[in-house]
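Hi, here's the filled form for the chain we discussed.

Project: internal
Contact: R.S.
Residues: 256
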Amino acid sequence: MPLRVLIAEDEPLARELLRSMLETRAEVAIVAEVGDGRSAIAAIERHQPDLVLLDVQMPEVDGFGVVELIGSARMPRVIFVTAFDHYAIRAFDVHAFDYLLKPFDQERLDRALDRILAEPRRSASDDLAARLTALLGDVQRDESVSRIPVRTDRGFQFVNTDDVDWVEADGKFLRIHAGTEVHSVRMPLAALEAKLARRRFVRVHRSVIVNVERVVEVQSWFQGDYVLILRDGSRVTSGRSYRDNVRRLLDLRDAQ
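And the returned structure, exactly as it came back:
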């Protein structure tokens, strides 16, 4: 059976070039082409490809957000497509992930495909999942954003992440609490989490991220959970699956 490949790239000309390069390989079958992160997630879940050519910088949800939302354990093999030429490239090398640096090179793609085709055909292994998780951690620390774009009646305004106290998920939207202001953004919480500095923001509940510097008190609660009291008076209860994150939050506060 051919290697089933999904192309996830937001630039039409780049998608066309990747398609033409893949079509030179008889062992490859392109199952779909998408131009944004949300479509990539849907296509991965629908087609279950063996390999994803995944652009790092895409609209709505970037490549790392796609991995985060699919989950490292469920993510197919990945060749990252990127214009980065500094830290992220070193991270890909350290964690043994193939990447295509723009502008694309047929020889580089062929080498990456040859390595994948030489491996036994199987779903993501524990080793692949572990390497993806480690890669996400390293890149997120380096590529964190300092401002969040928020849509307004007249366009967009930018909220500095330094001003954010906490973020809560509310259906398909996020409510970003920054001082006396609350901003609404349509975005998955995991996608924003992937963009925030890991030493500044910690997810303490499936629907809540807090700014470590805004936590003034952590109280023990029932069955090992915690109540976090923030500087603005907000009280947030941690989720059972996020106890380790709260403990990490305490470690981060001690380190500051």
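Let me know if anything looks off before we file it.
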